[in-house]
Amino acid sequence: MTAPLLAAVDIGGTKTAAALVRAGAVLARTQAPTPARDGAAAVLDRAAALVRSLGGAPVAVGVGAPGLVDPATGLLTAATSSISDWSRVDVPGAVRDRLGLPGAVLNDVQAFTLGEAVHGAGRGLPTVIGVAVGTGIGGGVHVAGMLLSGRSGAAGHLGHLPVPQAVGRPCPCGATGHVEAVAAGPAVAARYAERTGDPVDLPEVVRRARAGDDAARTVLAEAGAALGTALAGLANALDPDRIVVGGGAAVPEVLAAAGPAFAAACMPVLGPVPLVPAALGADAALVGAAEAALRTLEEGRVRR
Known about the structure:
By secondary structure, the protein is α/β, with parallel strands linked by helices.
């Protein structure tokens, strides 16, 4: 039996990508700027237009979106400020209205985790943790074939685990001391500016580190150590088969420092928990969104 053709959308603050996916393979892909300042309706209109532009005959649409998804209502909560009017949006309803197809929505990093757990670096393993390090730090947990959502949809969001490297440092969530406050891309750039008085972005910090800048090397190593410590805490709690790390701020220098800190903080009884790079690249969230759409279809068949 041929696997169904699915549409997938990955909505970001600056761009929205759409794809046709079958059995975890991306068959066609397109993207366009996200009209974030124009509000939720415009963003979802753009997403629907991208899906239509791909042609084909998908049977369902999966959407990876910034913000949390309330497991009880399916509405977006704790929404990103980068998209206007993004809170309490009914994404599956919007997909149905615009495309006439059943839809599913999940947090974008949980979509990344689902894609990597089922079709990527964690394929075939019982317990997989996904981690995306970028403007923020997000994550997800896939156990025994299920993506954990938690009571409020926030399961796996390890960017808000406390680490000693971040004590006293404000986190974007409003608390202090979380790993995101030292290891996310903007946090690394901010720490470099504190040390040098030179405000530059993360790519420039990385370039300077590779050119021999000691301050740049130090802040990247500190970010990696904090990330490794946070991941070890999660590993100690969940005993995963593998932790998959991706995202634009997961540069080699950060990962190189994360490894030793992770190993040092893990319980010895766990043995070596593999800490591996993501396998699906920029398509991970799209593949995961498609998988969420497929699961929604299958659940509907079971209920009927």
